[in-house]
Amino acid sequence: MSLLLLALVLSAVAAACAGAYQIIPWQIPSILLNEGDGYAVLMHVRFPRVFLGLIVGASLGIAGASLQGLFRNPLADPGLIGVSAGAGLGAALWIVFSSQLLSSQSQWGMSAAAFVGGLAVTGVAWKLANVKQGGATAVHLLLAGVALNSLAGAGIGALIFMSNTEQLQTITFWMLGGLGGATWPSVVATIAISLLGVAILLPLGRPLNLLTLGDADAYHLGLNTRTINWRVIVGSTLTVGAAVSAAGGIGFIGLVVPHLLRMFVGPDHRFLLPASALLGATLLVAGDLAARTMAAPLEIPVGVVTAFFGAPFFLWLIWRQRRELSYA
Q: Pick from 277, 305, 270: which is nearest to 59 by CA?
């Protein structure tokens, strides 16, 4: 865990210092004490972006680990329950139908619409899957999430067809994901909601360990599986909804991070959940640093970078796992 903390600090410092305006790390204290160009770059551009990346990455990481533990499925992803697609639909609705007084470029309005959309779609999925047995709830929630993801995707496609050139560009860049619009108000709003979700998810390490035995065995060991299902879904919805509403669609963090950590810290969710939050934050900040420096002065959407590196890594994990099984 100490190595993850060290990596987190190093990635945050590197992200704060690197860019068109280069800053030497040990000069940061003096820059903050003397207002000038360096102070403006750090306080109004770099620090909000770094902090938002830390929050969003941690949210996606811990949500991914929690959902994989709940569904006992290594392919479970934070977008699986519909929150990401719902947030995309909410943002697209705002962009296309917001009035001139409430400009489609309004970050607050678009973020609020995305968050409400994510909550709404997840709420519908939960309602459809709300049966009495905890195991059936997880299975039906998975199926409802897949169906609602497709429905929300169809809605986004229809809105794209209806949009003009400016709206289409906004929707496209939002769906690709990015931290370029980070401000201190957006950081504060995101961290307030995300911390609530993290506070719900972090204590669930032992219950998620028991769920790996199966719902029936976990129930006989005294675990209320229905309550655990509800807590994981609510906590994941809050963290992912806040993350997606602030940064758009960023994939593979919640899917790859828990896989990577299981190779080093094992499957114990008491360590896996906090470790996923730390590594998710580190990888997203590092990915954002790469996104804005690899093609400078152009900026690649960070969602493209995470997918570009995350997808091959995930395929390698699958190949490695199948190879181990073939030699077993």
A: 277
Q: Rounded to whole angstroms, how far apart are CA atoms 156 and 92?
A: 6
DSSP string of 41-107, one letter each residue: HIIIIIHHHHHHHHHHHHHHHHHHHHHHHHHT-TT--GGGGSHHHHHHHHHHHHHHH--SSS-TT-H
CB atoms within 10 A of CB 40: 13
How distant, in Å, are the alpha carbons of 134, 207, 220, 295, 296 from that of 137? Answer: 5, 16, 18, 46, 47
Residue whose tokens read 């709003």: 189
Is residue 70 within 8 Å of residue 232, measured between CB atoms? Answer: yes
Per-residue pLDDT of 22-76, as tens digits, reads 888 888 888 888 877 788 889 988 999 999 999 999 999 999 999 888 888 777 7
Q: Report CA-CA distances (Å) from 235 to 135, 217, 268.
A: 18, 24, 19
Query: Which tens digits make up the pLDDT trace of 187-238?
Result: 988 898 899 999 999 999 999 998 888 777 777 777 887 888 889 888 988 8
Alpha-carbon distance of 26 to 291, in angstroms, equals 24
